[in-house]
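Quick one: structure for this chain?
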Amino acid sequence: MNLTTEFTRIFGVKYPIVQAGMAGSTTPELVATVSNSGGLGTIGAGYFTAEKLEDEITAVQELTDLPFAVNLFVPGGQLYIPENVEKMQAWLKPYRRALDLEEPVVNIDEQQKFNDAIDIIIEKGVPVVSFTFGIPDAEVIEKLKARNIKVIGTATSVEEAIANEQAGMDVVVAQGSEAGGHRGAFTESDNGQTPMIGTMSLVPQVVDHVNIPVIASGGIMDGRGLTASMALGAQGVQLGTAFLTTDESGASNLYKNAIENSIETDTVVTKVFSGKPARGIKNAFIEEMNEYNDEIPDYPIQNQLTNPIRKKAAKEGKEEWTHLWSGQSPRLARAIAAATLVENIIKESSDLIK
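Got it. Here's what it folds into:
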């Protein structure tokens, strides 16, 4: 098995390893270290303002001249239902009171932020853009490709992967249900559920139905995951949780400790923090919110309503009231330098395929 793949050739990287664009947890140091170690580092820009994005790109470009990516959230068609928002504000009031917080003002400006981000990416000469939560308009993809910027899509089913290929994506990430945090799902079944296919099942089925390179994602933490994924036909792997516990990660010590002290049965998929399904370590906030009988506001509305609570709780060391996104393999998490993690993955994989 050769670790030089179609993905590494197209993207100009040494190893078939992508660091996931974990919004809120990436740092320029993490992104640049992964790229300098031979992988593809990714800026998690999902929540960034235009100014923040520009600063992060500049910081990464000062630390590496190798390829890196920016990950963006594709704007959705969320509904603002005042009654739902008012009920949720009332439910969250005890948390705000305990943390001495004001009630936040909801601001739905996803589309404008997305458009600004695309312009900045082009202006700054970012080589790769990856997308989560859907596929951008054909005009956006054409605009990026006209500047020779590579585009990566995300899929949680064969149907979503085919849609990504038809839209012109250079690569598609096949993201299994084991993945931590928000997944890239953008379709729902008749009962309103997003696809929940495991990585081992999803990857070979996607590989059989698209012609573009497939990157496996979801629960992959080491060289065994890389080797298994490539045996299933993937051209590389994307890791998120594995990089969260590295030295360069932007995750707090509270967050890192929670992952390192968790086991595979501790994570659940929940909409209570953001309005979109995300996998994280179960805690009191999730359990208490499960008692909420009304409709949870759509993403990004719910995300904005709970964000100040989560931030302040994390700052004060209250892990029971903040999100702790994690994939299903926390026992495999390692508190090491990001460069060492990449090195270990390659060595472990090479030892397996000798």
